[in-house]
Amino acid sequence: MKNSIQIFIHDIKNIITNWVAIIIIGGLILLPSLYAWLNINASWDPYGQTEQIPIGVVNEDEGATVRDEKINVGRDLVAELKKNKTLGWQFVNRSKAMDRLEYGEYYAVIVIPKNFSEKLGTVMSNKPEKAQVEYYVNEKINAIAPKITDKGASVIVDQITRKFVSTVNGIIFDIFNKIGIEIGEKRPDIERFENYIFTLQDRLPEINNILNETSEDANHADNMLKRAKGLIPEVKNATANGIEIIDQTTSFLNEAESRLNKISPKVDEDLNKIQTMTKRVNDFINSINSADVDITEGNPVGSNVTGQINDALQSITVIENALHQLQETQEGNDETINRALSEVQAIRQSLEKLSDQVNSVNSYLEAKQAEVDQLFSSIKDRSAKVNERVNAFVKEYKETIEPTVRNEVAKAKDTLTSARGILADVQSAIPEVQGILNRTSDNLSSGKKMLKNVMGEFPYVNEKVNQLANRIRDIQGEMSLGELINILRHDPIAEKGFFEEPVVLNENKVFPIPNYGTGMTPFYTVLAIWVGGLLLISLLSTDVHRSELSYTEKQVYVGRMLTFLTIGLFQTLIVTLGDMFILNVRIAEPFWFVLFGLLCSLIFVMIVYTLVSVFGDVGKALAIVLLVLQIAGAGGTYPVVLLPKFFQVINPFLPFTYAISLMREAVGGIIWEKVLHDVLLLVVFGLLALILGGLLKGPIDKYTSKVKEKGKESGLFH
């Protein structure tokens, strides 16, 4: 170990005392820092400079008319993009845009076609079509630029979509709000409608019964119509016969009226005669009672009275015949005529009795003088009664019977005339009735067909009404009408704003990194430390060229390693401190950032030094190969899961994997469990390098020395 330290001290003296060595070593210390700083600065904030990427925008949209309102989405989009500084939008025509795209002046071109607004407007039709935006990208210019321009195109599409969805939803929610207001106003009607549906559901069995009964009634009505149509001829005959009978009856009444007019004077005359006769009889009786006359002298007068009574009886017969004729005219229904006949018959009977008594007087005058006075008294009374009854009958006949008979005949004629007019109207209406019956029959047939169709559709209606009623109950169970109205009656402007950006990303950075350059600092710093080690093994020798002293291979290996490690530590100090103070990289844990960098430097220098010390120029190649593998497979730029399978497999076996992870802990914030894990594995890599160098330096050096000599002979290797 003493010799190893002696080698180290001697190397330091040689550097200090040789100005050329100082310059070279100074360059070796500074160069890795430049490599890191330039790369970190170059990638400091590339995505914050995207407004410098020129992208052509061609608007060919001709607009459209949607519901009598003109729209031009392309024009509105251009106006929005002019305010958008995300990318370098260039508004040109198609020809110029495509030329500049081909020559690399534009990274991409976005074309809004002529029918863009028209296609968007189809959302209001039954067959909506998606609008398309044409996107052209020149992928030859740069590998990253197309990804950025793709994002820009996506931003445009998202902006259009968001604006479109916002507008459409604004219209929809405005309609919903109006619907909600209208539903609120119509809520009583809606609730009544719901009750109607429930009532209809409850009455469906009753409706079914009514339909069946109506069908039976229709069949019965059809049969009645058929019978009624069959009775039309009979009605025609009956009407004609009725008119004929009325005409005959009217003729008979006219004849009866004529006879009445003829016999009326005769009846009046006979009544006057009867009245005169009864008066004379009465006077005769009075004269007998008032005079002292010999009974036997009264025979001539009695004969005269008997003759007058017989004349009166003849007049009574004439009156009876006239009354019988009137009775036949009235068909025996007139109570007045019947009563008059009874009176006349009573008068007849009284006159006949009077005549018999007068005859009895003449018979008994001579035989029964004593009874004469009594008989005359009886005759007087009866004569008075007859006279009174005759006078009453004459009065009743003239004042009641004859006017009543004439009035009844006139009324009968009027009734018959009216009846004949009615029958004539009926007769004239029969064709119309027949037409009505035919039309009714046709309508009834149509109604039966419709009823049959209704009955055929009733099961479907029954099912749908039940489904509707049950669905209404389900909806009422899920949401009341009031809740629905509250949902619909929202502020359409607020709803439009919500759907324009329904989800707001609430970003919470657990370990915040201010920019892309800071995020890449761990990778480029670790890479610079490894590159620093490569520079050392490229310019400095791993052997000791002092002939006056003799050192073993292990002493040389350890002694010269100390020199390499010292220079490597200076390289790392410059890199890490420069990251913080020159580039102003924000480091969460600056002390640990420097310390972790120094640890990485020790491990990396051990690895590359051991490779070159043991394997010579082959070791240099191995160190470079290992660098290449680590750049691609350590996950410094892309997540390991995005790498090909090969790199995912070798990732756990690469020192960069743990070095970058360790430096990221210092940059973003330390999780000590991860730090201990990474430090432990890095130490393992360092120990493996020491073990490899300690065990293989001597044995392999015998073979590699011959290779070195042979390489020097070529004049190309030192």
TrEMBL record:
GO terms for cellular component: membrane. InterPro entries: ABC2_TM, Phage_infect_YhgE_C, Phage_infect_YhgE_N, T7SS_ABC-Transporter. Keywords: Coiled coil, Membrane, Transmembrane, Transmembrane helix. It is a multi-pass membrane protein. It is found in: Membrane. Gene3D superfamilies: 1.10.287.2610, abc type-2 transporter like domain (3.40.1710.10). The keyword Transmembrane helix applies. Residues 309-371 form a coiled coil. One of its GO terms (molecular function) is ABC-type transporter activity. Residues 23-151, 514-693 form the ABC-2 type transporter transmembrane domain. Its main location: membrane. This is Phage infection protein. It comes from Ornithinibacillus bavariensis.
